[in-house]
Amino acid sequence: MTEAERQCRAERLPFSEIFRYQYLISRQQVAITGMARRRFGRFHLYIGQALPVTELLDCEGAPIGLLLGVAVAPEGALGASHMVPRLSARSDDCLDEFESWLIDLAGRYTIVLDMADEQRVYCDPVGMNGVVYNPQTRRVASSPLLCIDREVMPNPLYDFDALREHGGRFTLFTTIDAEVTRMNPNFYLDLANFHETRHWPREEVFEHSPKDYGRAVDQIIKITRHNIGALAAAHDCVMPLSAGRDSRLLLAMAGPHRDKISQFFTHVTNAGTRRDAEVARDISQKLGVPHEVHMRRPMRRPRDIQRAERNQRAFQIAAGVVTSAPNEMSLGVQAMIRPGAVVLRGHQTDLLRAVYVSWTNKAKWKDFHWQMRKLFPVPIEHFTTEVANRFRPLFTNWLQTLPRNALEKQPDFMFLEVFYSASLGSGFPANWHCFYLSPFNSRRLMTLALGFDDAYRLSGRTVDDVLFRIDPDLAAIPFGLEWSPDAEVYPLAQSRVEEAEQRHGELFPQKHLRKAG
């Protein structure tokens, strides 16, 4: 029995429900309940009851593997089966062609590939679906406790009591267990020897000429709009709205597909999210879309407190962590999302804001102490030289895997590969009420976003230009720090939009998108 199921039984928690979006791949058969089992080559594959599965086929209809999760390709959303265009499993370069197809694949997914006498595991570009493995037990899974049949062997890099009290994160591909490793999302795992090999980035040049900025913006809008439309046509999709830039970008790029999204909502759990709800109300009124405000539930009755404690413990088991569950889960607001919905989140659009660069002085990027602190193995106020020295070998090992073209965007790749795999890759599989993903989560869109100059991204002008390109009225609604409950005029927002309007003629000689249809 896996440690995940054993802990669920000990806590009287429903394993099959909590792990409904998770999976396990094992060389040996595993005693496990609540998951469907099927053979995959030399391995046994166990799939949670709600996790979508797509059979991947080559262009001649031959099976080449399975995709676990939700994904969209240029040819559309993936369903029960999907034929990869122009890929023949009999071709000598079929593996290279498959990796080329992955560049345009967006969503949250894990792929088990069986082709050309190779069995490999691939995943989305930030590991959003969770991929951890244990070479000792020859298992791959979405979370650490599925990889072991014994009690956790605490990872010696961490002080678990300090994590419980102050917070922090298992980072740099470590997990709660000393034997279980998190896979780098831009590597593949060879199931023959459990070795990882990088497959992306390839030969991309992460630099646009300024004269091509307008073309790149239009490509980003076109691809993201296609992804949202295809996902919303194939799944029950919902979208959170806030006062921030990422949800605004996603909403704008959804364009005509907004009417396919079945629920727009804002969770209110504190003062900041109350502001989110006010701005989201203005946005929804401007666009004429329905909007729900989900207020936190007061913990007044013993049963409410007990439910919150059970959710907290269930999340810790499902994620394989000792830290707290997300606010939306512990405070009960997540239950107001349509059950089983695909929640479209704006993650990775923050590359357009260079959120992990913070300095335009590239010399600062070489400060390993600064970089490791931003990975949050401990809270920033607890980060010391001793902590930095403890994690430095792992950081150096990761840095040495980056190809030359990625080194120019090193903090961004640290953000994508290390930070996101440890946060989203840990937390998303443990959210069993709904299926979170980002339609911007593709290697193609990341390449386009990273091609803009760092100073341009840091200034916020990239976001302003994308928004203005789509809908100037939507761009003019203030963001959180620009908004005030008493204001009728917002000078900062007005100035921001006026500047975007001035740039628009230089970036886009063609007509405005909205006016051009």
Percent of residues in helices:
25-40%
Arithmetic mean pLDDT? 93
Number of strands: 19
**How would you characterize the largest beta sheet?**
8 strands, mixed
The secondary structure category is alpha+beta
The first-to-last residue Cα distance is 57 Å
Fraction of residues in β-strands: 15-25%
Principal-axes shape call: globular
Low-pLDDT residue spans: none
User: What is the CA-based Rg, rounded?
Assistant: 23 Å
The helix count comes to: 19
Label this structure with key terms.
517 residues, alpha+beta, six-stranded antiparallel β-sheet, 19 helices, globular
Could you characterize what this model shows?
The chain has 517 residues and is of the alpha+beta class. Helix content is 37%, strand content 17%. Strands 4, 5, 6, 7, 8, 9, 13 and 14 form an eight-stranded mixed β-sheet that branches. The protein has a six-stranded antiparallel β-sheet with strand order 2-3-1-11-10-12, with no helix packed on it. Helix 1 (3-11) packs antiparallel against helix 8 (302-319), helix 6 (245-254) packs parallel to helix 16 and helix 16 (461-470) packs across helix 18 (491-507). It is globular and about 65 Å long. The N and C termini lie far apart (57 Å). The model has no long low-confidence stretch (mean pLDDT 93).
